[in-house]
Amino acid sequence: MTAVATPTAPRALSAYRPFWAKRFGPAPFLPMSRAEMERLGWDSCDVIIVTGDAYVDHPSFGMAVIGRTLEAQGFRVGIIAQPDWHGVDPFKALGRPNLFFGVAAGNMDSMINHYTADRKIRSDDAYTPGGAAGRRPDRATLVYTQRCQQAYKDVPVIIGGIEASLRRIAHYDYWQDKVRHSILADSKAELLVYGNAERAIVEIAHRLARREPVETMTDIRGTAFLVRQGHVPQGFAEIDSSEVDQPGRIDEHVNPYQTPEAAAAARGQSCAKEEGAATAAEAVVAMPLSRKAGALKLPPREHTVIRLPAYEQVKSDPVLYAHANRVLHLETNPGNARALVQRHGIGAAGRDVWINPPPIPLSTAEMDLVFDLPYARSPHPVYADESGGHDGPTKIPAWEMIRFSINIMRGCFGGCTFCSITEHEGRIIQSRSEDSVLREIEDIRDKVRGFTGVISDLGGPTANMYRLGCKSREIEAACRKPSCVWPGICSNLNTDHAPLVKLYRRARGLRGVKKILIGSGLRYDLAVRSPEYVKELVTHHVGGYLKIAPEHTESGPLAKMMKPGIGAYERFKQLFEAASAAAGKKQYLIPYFIAAHPGTSDEDMMNLALWLKRNGFKADQVQTFYPSPMATATAMYHSGLNPLKGVHRDARAERVDVVRGERRRRLHKAFLRWHDPKNWPLLREALKAMGRADLIGSGRQQLIPAYQPATEGGYQSPRRSNSTPSQPGQPRKGRLLTQHTGLPPRPGIGRKTG
User: pTM, whole model, 2 decimals?
Assistant: First the structure.
């Protein structure tokens, strides 16, 4: 096993010599059948991608991005989309791939795609023609990998996408209510690629094309693989972090409530510096019990691996699970992350899952290269209806949602504990150039059927993080904070929205563009730093409603979410309403809220309901907290501890109020829908038990009435009402309020799920 690659000089995507098959040129669509391959003049595919989504050749769909990126390197790439997994033959449809199978569950984790937060089966699937449910299996990555291995035993299988990325270590599985193995250990795939995979997958493809054995590819960042139990390569030092209260000085867990300056001062340093690394020691280093214990000699990060508690330990001990989750989240900055290793199994049959540090983010030039590839920007013709379009019964809902929208960036430095965007795409923002974005708008204008002149979104995981980031690369590479905006905005963070304002102005000046809307959610705590941006946004890019996500009003749950206080929302609301009035427009904010998040008491939900009533908000649909694999909030849910404040077995540990059980979860949802008479009996009972019967009555300060309608026929869903708000700033009742679960507002490359 060779050393892990250093983070200093990644090879550019454009620096590879193209594979010989580049002579065939780009395909109109990546082929899904042998007949298409023959028309392209191919006798075989070099790479076959198996995906749980319908194939849409668009840069918001992961299989298209990876396929087109590999095609640009000269490889012949085929797609097997939503195959019938009950047999092997569909996995042989394109023949034997020359290099590897790439397997992904799709743009969403398959379990989140199938089940609601209440573990009920969903009735539709936005990534399937016609929105039909049931076109992919549960745990699709495992099933597809097994079928690929059965189809061609000698072909390497490389798993990736959001499902594999968020299950790369032993993880709590909400649907089985237990800790499961790393998906790599269960699937027995040769490699797992996590995060945005272009850099890793291109290197893997070229090395396989040079006939390098896949077993030797242990030095690629952003990958995980299985190794012999206890094996540490020569030159590496293993740091034992398999027990709590042994994090060690260099692993000191960052207090998210402490500023970088205060943390650095406590160590006698400036925040731009980190403790120096010493020479490598080829032995296991037990982490000291005291952070002030002696001058411990530690190896360079690139030659260090941290041993997490084994699967068997975290499976049976929630405290160790919380500890492992905490260590994992500290090793996510590409500038200073170390490799991780976790044992799965005991004895001769056991294996270690080795996880290399995260990939180096793409440069702007590389982002442009990826997004400028010759996407057809439509579903594969196999999905077309008889009229030759995609507007009939075979339309793909996710495609309809994003067909006129554009990704301008990746990543999120918010670090919200319930969201997996940061965990998957990383906290370093990767932005495209203005020219690349404008070219894509022109492509939509000129090529996409049905374009009416309205771009539905210029966004990404967070609409207003374009070109934002740390002011210093040195500080960024050394920082180990989980968020750049919690508990307040870091003094080292560049919050200048001028590049985004310039992009908006150039984009709406293009010929044929009538309107550009912003559909992605935005960070209002950042937006208030730039009144010019708020004015530009509100004046030109809001279509009546703007969605933002305060998530809650109370400090208890907000602290567990790592979200700003409701005061930041109020400040943004003032700017929004002032700009709307100046523009002569009636526009409204649509806030999202979450129920039953760890750390939320019944009183917190009651106070949120009172806030909603005071502000005239009536949510039509809400969702409770959804514990997605690997999220920090999921560790809180499973362990009852707060990993943000340290993991201990004694009184120092901070306990978290976890909302379990169907009745309590229903109660928290009922508080969000306080206006629905169906919820009043449950709320009356709860308010009396809480000693707040004073909130039952018909007064303005009371939450629900004492009477119960004989029938509920008099209640009308806010979505179906045509009434207008009685006060400025209140949304019209015709607007749907929904909960931001960490899912993006539209599908994206490796976007979240859960």
Answer: 0.87
